[in-house]
Write a structure and sequence with these properties.
Elements: H1 7-28, H2 30-33, H3 44-56, H4 65-81, H5 86-104, H6 109-133, H7 141-174
Helix pairs in contact: 1-3, 1-4, 3-4, 3-5, 3-6, 3-7, 4-5, 5-6, 6-7
Organism: Levilactobacillus brevis (strain ATCC 367 / BCRC 12310 / CIP 105137 / JCM 1170 / LMG 11437 / NCIMB 947 / NCTC 947)
Membrane topology: Multi-pass membrane protein
InterPro entries: Cell_shape_determining_MreD (IPR007227)
């Protein structure tokens, strides 16, 4: 079924679009997002991937989301972080977790918000732990929770609330 749908081409185009928008939001709103001591990190790529997993649960489509997540992670690593390998593993892990969570709950707006909350927490926490392990970050755990994780969750959950229904409309149109 996936082979015959517009989603076969629409999903990667949307993924590339959200990769570009992610960087654009970070650049254009850098004064507001990266104000010392707080940091809000935009994860719109994760939003697109998580919505793909949530909306896939509603249909008979079986998209290769983990592969696309790994490709998006590689592009994200090479273009945004400069450290290859971190998001190549984090993004597919998020897809795996999302699929597991969605198999236990009925996918709707509120459960999607909860799943996205968990996913963003995992993405940020694993990124923080990896940067601590590589000695790229010397912030304490408390500073990370207050200055990075909290504002990042607030920003990304607000983006989920704003973009959930338009993204759902795009997925339904592509199916």
């Amino acid at each position: 079924m996936y082979r015959l749908s517009k989603l076969r081409f629409g999903f990667p185009i949307g993924l590339f679009f959200w990769l570009l928008i992610d960087g654009t939001v970070s650049q254009v709103f850098s004064v507001q997002l990266f104000r010392t001591p707080s940091t809000m990190v935009s994860h719109l790529v994760v939003l697109w991937l998580v919505c793909g997993a949530i909306f896939e649960a509603d249909s008979a489509l079986s998209m290769p989301l983990a592969r696309w997540a790994a490709v998006a992670g590689a592009v994200f690593d090479l273009y945004y972080t400069g450290i290859f390998g971190l998001y190549v593993f984090i993004f597919p892990l998020v897809i795996y977790m999302t699929r597991r969570l969605v198999s236990w709950i009925r996918p709707n707006f509120l459960s999607g918000l909860l799943v996205y909350f968990i996913d963003i927490t995992v993405v940020e926490a694993l990124g923080y732990l990896a940067s601590r392990a590589m000695h790229l970050n010397d912030a304490s755990g408390n500073a990370f929770l207050v200055n990075t994780l909290g504002p990042t969750l607030a920003f990304n959950l607000a983006m989920f609330v704003i973009l959930y229904f338009p993204i759902r409309w795009v997925y339904n149109w592509l199916k």
